[in-house]
């Protein structure tokens, strides 16, 4: 197969990362960029080795009708995902879409049904699965050399609050942010939780004013007996703090990218400030994987069933925080 032809919808932070990574694989080119603000599209196009055609959102039928386009990268604000995904799948394009795939489990299911009906892959951007640290924990747990895993703890903290406006269109902290942590726990364990409980608070007035939370704790119980917890905070003054720890029968896995052990002892580097630095490799590996999938070289490791389960768990977290009750999960 020759180079794949791609279109990007949404030329902001995520769109720029994925467009550059797709081109860097040497296996794809970006032919079209669609954005509500064409200047954002032009700025991204100027950064690419070959210019893309920039189209204003609303005038993008020509992109969907372009038979040479194999696939679309969807990186518009989350509120717009469902409409764009469905339009692209109906036009016969494969789709990579940022998380959360849509803002509720029903529409997520509908999108995967459409993907199946049209025979075109749909992949949700759960990039953290492709992080070498997460991958190494996943592989060690699956290999089983340290025995049964008993618990997983995640600490996931952003350096700066999002704006109230972002929080409002993002689907809220559980769907927008905790979905990553929920996803990697389920990916490592190969099962979904049977019970979910969450508490939360908004310290930031802008976030409180849109009914969202900026600090949440989630606990989950899995059918195998594993307990997992997520401590998520939208603002940590000391940087982008991402830690995952797994306790197994024969030891504790505590990999971290920030602690360096050498013959001179242990040194702790400052935390990186942004997700773009912490997950640089993950984004590259993720886009490489997507291109393998579109090229028909493999099935995606991020399935529809998993993507739908993650959004159901995020919905259960919100229900729990609002009712103060634990939620028994139903994945039917
Ligand atoms: N996986 C990750 O680590 C990660 C990181 C950042 C963002 N994201 C996700 O990526 C998506 C975009 O977030 P972002 O931070 O890049 O946002 P952003 O605001 O930086 O960029 C969004 C872009 O979409 C454009 N846009 C808005 N409405 C549009 C429409 N209807 N059609 C076309 N373009 C439109 C905006 O003009 C802007 O250029 C969100 O779903 C977010 O959750 C994921």
TrEMBL record:
Stretches assigned to the Gfo/Idh/MocA-like oxidoreductase C-terminal domain: 139-329
Domain of life: Eukaryota
Pfam families: GFO_IDH_MocA, GFO_IDH_MocA_C
Gene Ontology terms, MF aspect: nucleotide binding; oxidoreductase activity
Example of a GO biological process term: NADPH regeneration
Gfo/Idh/MocA-like oxidoreductase N-terminal domain segment(s): 7-125
GO CC annotation terms, alphabetical: cytoplasm
Keyword vocabulary terms for this entry: Oxidoreductase
Official protein name in the record: Uncharacterized protein
Species this protein is from: Stichopus japonicus
């Amino acid at each position: 197969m020759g180079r794949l032809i791609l279109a990007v919808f949404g030329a902001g932070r995520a769109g720029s990362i994925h467009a550059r990574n797709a081109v860097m694989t040497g296996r794809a080119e970006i032919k079209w960029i669609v954005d509500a603000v064409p200047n954002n599209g032009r700025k991204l196009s100027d950064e690419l080795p070959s210019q893309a055609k920039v189209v204003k959102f609303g005038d993008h039928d020509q992109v969907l009708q372009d038979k040479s386009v194999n696939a679309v990268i969807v990186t518009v604000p989350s509120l717009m995902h469902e409409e764009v995904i469905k339009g692209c799948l109906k036009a016969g394009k494969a789709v990579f879409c940022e998380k959360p795939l849509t803002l509720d489990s029903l529409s997520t299911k509908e999108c995967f049904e459409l993907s199946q009906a049209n025979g075109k892959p749909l992949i949700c951007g759960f990039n953290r699965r492709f992080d070498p640290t997460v991958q190494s924990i996943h592989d060690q747990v699956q290999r089983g050399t340290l025995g049964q895993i008993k618990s997983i703890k995640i600490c996931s903290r952003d350096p700066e609050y999002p704006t109230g406006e972002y929080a409002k269109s993002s689907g809220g902290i559980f769907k927008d942010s905790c979905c990553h942590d929920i996803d990697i726990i389920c990916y490592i364990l190969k099962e979904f939780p049977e019970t979910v409980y969450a508490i939360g608070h908004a310290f930031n007035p802008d976030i409180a004013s849109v009914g969202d939370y900026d600090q949440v704790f989630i606990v989950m119980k899995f059918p195998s007996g594993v307990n997992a917890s997520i401590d998520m905070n939208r603002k940590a003054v000391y940087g982008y703090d991402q830690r995952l720890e797994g306790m197994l029968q024969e030891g504790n896995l505590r990999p971290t990218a920030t602690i360096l052990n050498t013959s001179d002892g242990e040194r702790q580097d400052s935390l990186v400030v942004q997700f773009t630095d912490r997950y640089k490799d993950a984004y590259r590996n993720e886009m490489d994987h997507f291109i393998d999938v579109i090229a028909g070289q493999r099935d995606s490791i991020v399935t529809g069933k998993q993507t739908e389960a993650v959004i159901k768990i995020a919905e259960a977290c919100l229900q729990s925080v609002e009712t103060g009750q634990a939620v028994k999960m139903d994945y039917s």
